[in-house]
């Protein structure tokens, strides 16, 4: 691509300066004389200068009228200048559009990179939230297991308390039976004594023989009474012990109930945290979906930019083709000029 400012006029002046020094104008010498320009730019312009130089030599040797030569040269210069200006303007427009598209492409790539960075950040946050959610679920499962164990312990304590209640009830029934038996024994003894009083006169001798037996029976009864009283005291002590154990079990049950309430409150808090994490995850997923949609839009825009760049390249190719056609037309005009010069020479 030619640099702005390097034209055919500059090349022609530099070539004439090199030729004035007595050297053959080459690409390197002309570039050294100009101090700028690329070989790909200087080569076609230098070739054009050589062709024009040869044409000037032919014109000077042909003896044509100077007015005709000046008119043809003026026409040639205007055509050359117009083609150069058109090509230069097209190249500048092409370069400007390419720069604009390159800036747009750079901005799009930068925005795409930022979107990908945000997407990676959001994916990492979602991964962290899912890890925390799994940890909370594991802790919730452990709390539920502990709650189930506590419930089973509570049920076991309730079952033991029920067994103690049944034992106390049995002891009370046994105590009641002992009292009934003792009262029945007292009533029976009173009836026997009354019967003895009634039959005292008639059974005095029998009573004397039975005193010893009754005394022994009374001794046994008193011993049995003491045994029953001892069993009653033991039952009473056991009942008090069971009542104390029942009180301790009740306190433990209350502690278990308090702990269960605490665990339930903790479970509620963990469930609320899990719900909040689920909401945050849903929000992050929505934002990721939005970023993906924007990324798709940017990708479509990038494809459109590539399409425009391809169109610009095709336009530049068409301009080069038109420039080539203009050069061919110029060559045709130069050929016609040569024919005209030849015909003018024949006419003279």
Question: What can you tell me about this protein's structure?
Answer:
With 348 residues, the chain is mostly helical. It has helices at residues 8-20, 27-34, 39-62, 66-198, 204-347. The chain has a domain at 1-62. It has five helices and no strands. Helix 4 runs antiparallel to helix 5. The chain is rod-shaped and about 205 Å long. The two termini are 47 Å apart. Residues 7-114 form the KfrA N-terminal DNA-binding domain. Keywords: Coiled coil. InterPro entries: KfrA_DNA-bd_N.
Keywords for this entry:
348 residues, mainly alpha, 5 helices, coiled coil
Summarize the SSE layout with pairings.
Layout: H1 8-20, H2 27-34, H3 39-62, H4 66-198, H5 204-347
Keywords: Coiled coil
GO molecular function, one term: dynein complex binding
Organism: Halioxenophilus aromaticivorans
Short synopsis of the structure:
With 348 residues, this protein is mainly alpha-helical. It has helices at residues 8-20, 27-34, 39-62, 66-198, 204-347.
Low-confidence stretches: none
Radius of gyration: 63 Å
Coarse morphology: rod-shaped
Strand content: under 5%
The total of helices stands at 5
**Overall SS class:** mainly alpha
Please tell me the overall pLDDT. Answer: 78
Q: Specify the biggest β-sheet.
A: none
């Amino acid at each position: 691509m030619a640099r702005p400012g390097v034209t055919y006029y500059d090349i022609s002046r530099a070539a004439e300066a090199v030729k004035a020094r007595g050297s053959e104008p080459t690409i390197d010498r002309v570039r050294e004389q100009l101090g700028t320009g690329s070989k790909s730019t200087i080569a076609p312009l230098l070739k054009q200068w050589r062709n024009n130089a040869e044409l000037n030599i032919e014109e000077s040797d042909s003896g044509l009228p100077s007015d005709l030569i000046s008119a043809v040269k003026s026409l040639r210069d205007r055509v050359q200048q117009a083609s150069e200006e058109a090509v230069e303007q097209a190249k500048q427009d092409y370069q400007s559009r390419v720069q604009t598209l390159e800036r747009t492409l750079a901005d799009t790539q930068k925005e795409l990179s930022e979107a990908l960075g945000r997407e990676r950040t959001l994916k990492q946050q979602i991964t962290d939230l899912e890890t925390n959610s799994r940890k909370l679920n594991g802790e919730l499962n452990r709390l539920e297991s502990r709650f189930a164990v506590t419930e089973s312990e509570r049920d076991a304590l309730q079952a033991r308390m029920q067994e103690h209640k049944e034992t106390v009830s049995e002891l009370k029934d046994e105590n009641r039976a002992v009292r009934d038996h003792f009262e029945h024994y007292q009533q029976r003894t009173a009836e026997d004594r009354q019967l003895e009083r009634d039959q005292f006169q008639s059974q005095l001798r029998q009573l004397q023989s039975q005193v010893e037996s009754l005394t022994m029976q009374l001794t046994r009864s008193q011993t049995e009474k003491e045994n029953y009283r001892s069993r009653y005291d033991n039952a009473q002590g056991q009942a008090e012990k069971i009542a104390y154990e029942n009180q301790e079990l009740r306190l433990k049950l209350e502690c278990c109930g308090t702990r269960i309430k605490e665990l339930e409150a903790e479970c509620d808090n963990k469930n609320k945290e899990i719900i909040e994490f689920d909401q945050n995850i849903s929000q992050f997923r929505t934002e990721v979906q939005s970023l993906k949609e924007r990324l798709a839009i940017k990708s479509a825009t990038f494809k459109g930019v590539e399409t425009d760049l391809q169109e610009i390249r095709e336009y530049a190719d068409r301009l080069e083709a038109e420039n080539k056609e203009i050069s061919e037309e110029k060559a045709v005009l130069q050929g016609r000029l040569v024919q005209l010069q030849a015909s003018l020479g024949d006419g003279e």
